[in-house]
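Moderator note: this is an archived Q&A kept for reference. The question asked for a predicted structure of one protein chain; the sequence and the answer are reproduced below.
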Amino acid sequence: MSDDVPAVEVRELSTREECAWVDPFFVDVWGVGTPPLGGELLRALAHAGGYVAGAFVADDLVGVSVGFLAHRHRLALHSHATGVTARARGRGVGVMLKEHQRQWALDRGVPTITWTFDPLVRRNAWFNIAKLGAQPEEYLVDFYGAMGDEINGADESDRLFMVWDLEGRPAPVDPDTARLPTLLACRDETPVVQASDSETVLVATPPDIEGLRRREPDLAREWRVALRAVLAGELAGGQVVGFTPAGEYVVRRGAARA
């Protein structure tokens, strides 16, 4: 990085003033209608040992992450909300926030980080599965209900529940994915469900679901219904073992979870 480009610094937020920055920041990321977390709750969460952190370029807040300790099947830091402003994309802020979370958790003897994300958002699936090596464990239908912000719009809030083993390695992507059958394909932005009895299959995502929601909300809804039917059903008895650069989940049927 050039010496004249300010570095990104990630640090915890704890004062009243710092916690008050969080809700306006998330509105900047997700738009009008983003439900507030509340400065009082965030202040209490930080004081009680929860996770509230910000990423800064000089004095400019460019990323925020909020999480809390949880014990659903395992001790974990549950990362509830993480956002990066558009002006900082491409600077690795999301990676830095995740690495800060990872070190924060390990310093406290917490071996796992969990979170949810929209399985239709291709770039997030790539980051979570292929880059971090986190494991989708559960498909959650309309988990938060109507969210109403500018990114989610009127779409139902289906989510994948992710588990990141902090001592594990990235999940491998099958090297022969080009030869695998596609259970859900993307053709001219349209979802096409196909049959296959293969042990390992591909499940596609749209190239840009957020743009599709703005341009063609009915087609975006069609994608939600199709992905829910296919991926939720496959996860009930199988496992996602990778995510391809072309935007497809690699699903191994009948795979036992570690």
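Archived answer notes: The chain is about 30% helix and 30% strand.
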